[in-house]
Specification:
The complex is a heterodimer of chains A (255) and B (395). With 255 residues, chain A is an alpha/beta fold. Helices cover 35% and strands 24% of the residues of chain A. Chain A is built from ten helices and ten strands. In chain A, strands 6-7-8-3-9-10 form a six-stranded mixed sheet, with helices on both faces. In chain A, strands 2-1-4-5 form a four-stranded antiparallel sheet, with helices on one face. Chain A is globular and about 55 Å long. Chain B has one domain. Chain B has 18 helices and two strands. The radius of gyration of chain B is 22 Å and the shape is globular. Chain B starts with a helix and ends with a helix. The C terminus of chain B is likely disordered. The interface between A and B is large, with 40 and 37 residues.
Chain lengths: 255, 395
């Protein structure tokens, strides 16, 4: 699995290019002069000890946190200067650490909410559930293993199913860059396997950035691993390379 | 299936609710009450516009505005300005030192009609102003607050401050607004005497008709994707934002709709009661209006109307029967509602209705049979659950 997309930065144009990114909270640099490039079709996993700045990096990309300095380029857009909804509309999807879904709506309605039409006030007022919406919802539901639960209220789903549902909501948006914060937290072993398959499938034609702690899961999905420590990159490369890096073992894997 | 029937009327149960309210307002009250009491009900129903607006912006949008009196007042003042100009023709004001201007201006040594009042000679301008001025005001407030992500309690405090500021401004600008007395002695609407019994009867029906129009428009909003977005925002604002929606614009929209409803109520209040004063603008009336919505059930458009009626009937009854105790009794009512019926009258109805339904269905099926959750209905009706149906989900 970890063969194809490694080592092509120089030849290909990266989808996401983070350069000299810094954010400081009251003088504390949560992310410090970070450089990170993600290619199309790549699944990049970001690992690191707690407080390394992993989630902050995702927050910065999706506009939730404002960068102090540096640039985040996504295709031809400078994301640091855009509002959150505009960033989503150019093709960046983000899943939160805890499943963030609309509990009192059905699976169908949850997915429909993310359908990229009727995103403005009057568009939403006149939005109609046409055949293409239904078809898209059904195909995404099949992809995230929830086609049998379309009309189940979302709060009745298991924890793992909720995680999938949120991934499905992102897929509805057809993002070019998908960011997942701990997608398999709280999942059973079989659910983890299915999620790994899912990620393998959905990374086709887009880029995926994943934050994860579960090393077996990381091994099964990562094309390339970035290790963050104190807001800086400690190591980057294939899983094998990173795992054998003495610095990584010292601050993260070894303990 | 008729889409409009499902969407706006809310299917059979939604239609039944509307019909019951319709019979109450359009048949029982006009037949059962004398014109004085009916006019009083009409006054209460003009407050119900505010409560219906609050259901949209507070109940569904999660925006608690404690300044809805501002919009009620601005709508009411716009109408009152038109009526006052009509009542101040040169002949009936010939004893003034400047005939042809409103009496309170004359008392304040103003000798010509201020520019702000000029366009209110036109009825069509007045109608436009009633609808547009409060809505634009809400737009400005909403943009300023929601674009900066001011929310929750801070928003409530700011709206309350605005209500206080506006009422102080109105009282201070006596020559322009009639000060603390307000604009009084309103007589005719384009030559039609609004003080007669028949006029009061007609205005009552116009008022009720407009209230139904607002309720139906509210249902149209709530059953659209926008309605689902509002509820989604209330619970998971970040998720909505990171699904590509500009959350602020939706909040601004629903706040503007609530303001417009309030303004229509204010204008109808002026027409039915015959005056407008700053006592309907400030903090106390604004909070009272929130209480109407709370008593009725903040998730129910129809409940808001019942809540308004109940609180105001209570107010009238207690103040007539127990002049010394009535404020305490009203206070007790509010405390009881907040403590025991957090979803208001509509919540009680929903609970009791459910119990009755369960009693009936127990005879038909085995008790262990699971009850199908509401949201699990077919896709084309999934968005159509209204009012009470969402109460459960909101708990």
């Amino acid at each position: 699995m970890s063969n194809a997309p490694i080592g092509f930065e120089s030849t290909d144009h990266p989808v996401l290019a983070i350069e000299d990114l810094t954010v400081s909270f009251d003088g504390f640099k949560a992310v410090d002069k970070l450089n990170l490039y993600v290619q199309r079709n790549e699944v990049r996993v970001v690992i690191g000890p707690n407080g390394a700045g992993k989630t902050t990096v995702l927050d910065l990309i999706c506009g939730k946190t404002q960068a102090t300095s540096g640039s985040i380029r996504f295709n031809n857009h400078e994301l640091t200067k855009m509002s959150e909804h505009a960033i989503v509309r150019v093709g960046v999807g983000r899943k939160f650490q805890t499943p963030s879904i609309y509990e009192n709506l059905s699976v169908f309605e949850n997915l429909e909410m993310s359908f990229p039409r009727g995103r403005k006030v009057f568009g939403a007022l006149t939005f109609k559930r046409t055949a293409d919406v239904v078809a898209r919802v059904e195909s995404v539901a099949a992809e995230i293993f929830l086609d049998q639960h379309l009309y189940t209220q979302a709060d009745l789903l298991s924890h793992g199913q909720k995680q999938w549902l949120e991934i499905g909501m992102l897929l509805m948006q057809e993002p070019e860059l998908l960011m997942l914060d701990e997608p398999v937290a709280g999942m059973s072993v079989s659910e983890r396997e299915k999620t790994a398959q899912l990620l393998g499938r959905i990374s086709q034609g887009r880029s995926v950035v994943v934050i994860e702690h579960d090393m077996d899961f990381v091994k099964s999905i990562a094309h390339k691993v970035t290790v963050l420590h104190q807001g800086k990159i400690l190591a980057e490369g294939s899983m094998d390379k990173v795992q054998s890096d003495p610095k990584v073992i010292d601050v993260y894997l070894g303990h | 299936m008729n889409a409009a029937y499902e969407k706006i009327l809310g299917g059979r149960s939604g239609l039944a609710g509307l019909l019951i309210l319709g019979v109450l307002l359009l048949v029982i009250f006009p037949l059962g009450l004398d014109i004085f009491r009916l006019n009083l009900v009409g006054k209460y129903l003009s407050y119900a516009f505010v409560a219906v607006g609050l259901v949209l912006c507070w109940g569904y949008g999660g925006i608690l505005s404690l300044g809805q009196g501002v919009f009620f007042g601005v709508g009411g003042y716009c109408m009152a300005m038109f009526l006052k100009l009509e009542a101040s023709d040169p002949i009936s004001t010939k004893i003034q030192s400047t005939p042809g201007i409103p009496d309170f201006m004359d008392w304040n040594q103003i000798t010509s009609l201020p520019a702000m009042w000029q366009p209110f000679h036109s009825f069509s301008f007045t109608v436009l102003a009633v609808l547009a001025v409060p809505t634009l005001l809400a737009l400005v407030i909403g943009m300023a607050m929601f674009k900066r992500r001011v929310g929750d309690v801070y928003f409530s405090i700011v709206t309350q401050a605005i209500a206080a500021i506006l009422s102080i401004l109105i009282i201070g600008q006596q020559g322009l607004t009639g000060g603390v007395n307000g604009i009084t002695d309103l007589k005719t609407l384009m030559g039609w005497d609004i003080r007669t019994d028949s006029a009061k009867m007609i205005l009552y029906f116009v008022n009720a008709g407009l209230l139904f129009a607002c309720i139906l428009f509210g249902r149209y909003i709530l059953t659209s994707k926008l309605g689902r977005l509002l509820m989604a925002m209330r619970d998971k604002e970040e998720r909505v934002r990171f699904s590509g929606y500009d959350v602020a614009s939706f909040k601004v929209f629903v706040f503007c709709v609530a303001a417009m409803f309030s303004a229509v109520g204010g204008a109808m209040f002026t027409l039915q009661v015959g005056f407008m004063s700053p006592s309907f603008v400030g903090i106390v009336p604004s909070i009272e209006m929130v209480i109407y919505a709370a008593v009725g059930g903040r998730m129910s458009l129809l409940g808001a109307v019942y809540g308004t009626l109940l609180v105001n009937f209570g107010k009238t009854y207690f103040s007539e029967t127990f002049p010394e105790l009535w404020l305490f009794l009203m206070g007790g009512l509010f405390i009881a509602v907040v403590m025991y019926f957090p979803n208001g009258l509509a919540g009680v109805y929903e609970k009791q209705g459910k119990r009755l339904m369960a009693k009936f269905s127990r005879k038909k099926m085995t008790p262990s049979e699971p009850v199908k959750p509401k949201a699990a209905a077919k896709p084309d009706s999934a968005g159509a659950h209204l009012d009470g149906a969402n109460l459960e989900a909101s708990k």
